[in-house]
Amino acid sequence: KVEDDNGSELTALVHNGAPEQLSGHPSGVCRRCRGPSGDADEGPSALSGVVNLTNTCLGAGLLATPYALAQLGLLLGIALLILFGVLAALGLHLLSWCALAVDDDPGGKKCDSSYYTVSNRVWHYGSYFVDAAVALLCFGAMISYLIIVSDLLADLGRSVWGDCPQFFKDYRFWQAVVTVVVILPLCCVKKLDTMRFASLLAMVSVGYIVVLVVYFYFFGELSYEPEPIKLATFAPEAFAALPVFVFAFTCHVNLFPIYREMAHARFRRTQVVVIISLIICASIYIVVASFGYATAGPAVDSNIINNCAPATVGVARLSTSFLVTFSYPILLHPARCSLDTVVCRLKGDSWYPRVRFYTETLLLVGVTFFIAFFMRDLDFVRTCNAGHAPQRTQVLGVVGATSGSMISYVIPGWFYWVLWPAPHLHPRRLLAAALAFFGILLCVVCVTCLVLEEFF
Predict the structure, then answer these.
(1) Before 423, cis peptide (omega within 30)?
(2) How many alpha carbons lie under 13 Å from residue 444 in its C-beta half-sphere?
(3) pTM: predicted TM-score of the whole model, two decimal places
(4) Which long-range contacts (CB under 8 A, 24 or more apart) does 194-199 make?
(5) Angstrom distance (rounded) from CA 370 to CA 380
(6) Which one is predicted more confidently, 370 or 345?
(7) CA distance 406 to 385
(8) Quick one: which of 189, 172, 183 has its CA closest to 142?
(9) Torsional sign, CA 206, 232, 220, 150
């Protein structure tokens, strides 16, 4: 046993049948207090982690939260939104403990906590399952983001520049321009911390959307008389809106990169980052969902911007385009890490790291670009991952509901249960088991409701 920063005892980690101390590094500094390269004063600040983790949560799904609230009722929807925020915080907290278990291995090497190293510690074949879930979740969302941003800019071109050349109104033109000029250069950044400036611009876009929705509630006028809002709805089809809340707080894919790049006192600082990020996200979600639902009533659109005044729609579309564009590279980062682990298994990690990095980046951007480019007319491309059109069951929506539940609840609970085996009845272990069970149950319920809503 050793003592953590607060003076409480931590049980030694058991690995391969032998206890491993969580201290005793050659440098004399606990790994939680060292930077990515082993120095105590290196690494990005906690503010950078807050910005990037918040941007991971606040994607285009922000625009769908009023619709999800309309399906569940005002009070029930807000209660569930807070509940999913708390559960997401628990999952991130458990993943931080898993990162600590790997980070505190003796030897003084560079911190290598990741889904790959943690899942290999849990189960040799677990990394295949985790990599597939992470890649599927990010891949579906990235395709959706490309479709959304190109549609928004094409609509903006038609409404603002009515007499402009035809290609300015074509979504394919805007998709190619945004991908080549903005997305691809940002995706070539190696460290997630470097994305903090792009994430700040995305947060400005979020701020505008929040102000717009609140302003329209007090001063806007609808073309119809909205129906009274409901406080709670327990119809079975209401559960089909739950994936929107799941994805609203699904930022777990970037927890390990943020932990790995954090400066001194990694574990404690990561907890601060998680708490601040989720409080910001939950506050924004509650404001946008409540005011959007109260404005348009049960007939609120799956994209709240469509319910706003036409004079403000143009700027709102542009702000949403910024938000979605800068969210794409944040999601590509964990997807590239998952792909890299597969490549390293096949070729070894010494296979031209720089060439491998840029090849994987071009492959992911290229594949998502061509899928979004050529499969635009197929409705299943518009998924619940990005919160777009959640009222229709989509193939990737079902995949998203499963992978989102796995990443947010099942995997954190499962990993913690294995990595911290003693004491058996520790409250944190019981919470980990309950979270994993809840994730499996939620996955079954969401998929069942989505299928029933589509076919029955």
Answers:
(1) yes
(2) 6
(3) 0.76
(4) 195/52, 195/55, 195/326, 195/329, 195/330, 195/333, 196/44, 196/47, 196/48, 196/51, 196/52, 198/326, 198/329, 199/51, 199/52, 199/54, 199/55, 199/326, 199/330
(5) 15
(6) 370
(7) 14
(8) 183
(9) positive
Element holding 2 (H helix, E strand): strand 2-3
- Pairing between β-strand 9-10 and β-strand 2-3 as defined by DSSP bridges: antiparallel
Q: Where are the beta strands (DSSP E) in 13-164?
A: 13-15, 18-20
Q: How far is CA 46 from CA 51, 77, 164, 220, 362, in A?
A: 9, 31, 45, 39, 30
Question: Which of 89, 78, 27 minimizes the C-alpha distance to 251?
Answer: 89
Q: What tokens appear for 348 in the block?
A: 């070894």
Q: Six-digit token pair at 399? A: 């995949």
Q: Which among 71, 424, 394 has a CA at the least distance from the CA of 229?
A: 71
Rounded to an integer, what distance in angstroms lies between the CA atom of residue 62 and that of residue 240? 17
pLDDT digits (tens, 9 = 90+) for 205-219: 888 888 888 888 887
According to the model, what pLDDT value does residue 387 have? 40
Is residue 234 predicted with pLDDT exceeding 90?
no
